[in-house]
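chain below, 188 aa
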Amino acid sequence: MSNLDFSELKKGVVMVFNRQPHEIMHAQFVRMQQRKPVMQMKMRNLLTGKVVEYSAKSGESFERADITRQKAQFLYADHEGAHFMNNETFETIDIGQELSADKIGYLKESTDVHLIYFDEKPISIELPIKVDLEVKSTPPGIKGDTATGGTKPATLETGLTVNVPLFINEGDRIRVNTDTGEYVERAN
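prediction:
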């Protein structure tokens, strides 16, 4: 495991903080009058999902988390969590409900993802940036509504609900951003 320099603390970096892997979600360099500069960070604990804030001082040393990524295929989700198949060994990998709940809505059967491992245990799911999903139910657009105007809720094939433009109908395929959970565009 290598050490991280103060200048390497930025969004997306995974480091060991309080002996657990944390991914930096936001980092901002702050220089206050007559004080040493600090890096204000917002980090997500990859084991618990809890978000913590920390201000790192210049010269402080952090350990880069020794994580590995492994390609896997989503099989199904149930009350226990999400179940995947390793594409090379064909073994089933289970990720508990507490680590997968916020990601299951973007996954449909046979979606390829990367599983993130820490200490040889799967701890997180790395989703594709955008996924295409079918609209299962949404209220009809009302005549006279503009195509550029408002939005309405739509329930997708995975059970996820997103706000979509008024011209989207049941049966349409849409593209959703997995980072923000927002509608991007109609998918062909």
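The chain has three domains: 3-64, 67-126, 130-186. The two ends are 44 Å apart (CA to CA).
thats it, cya
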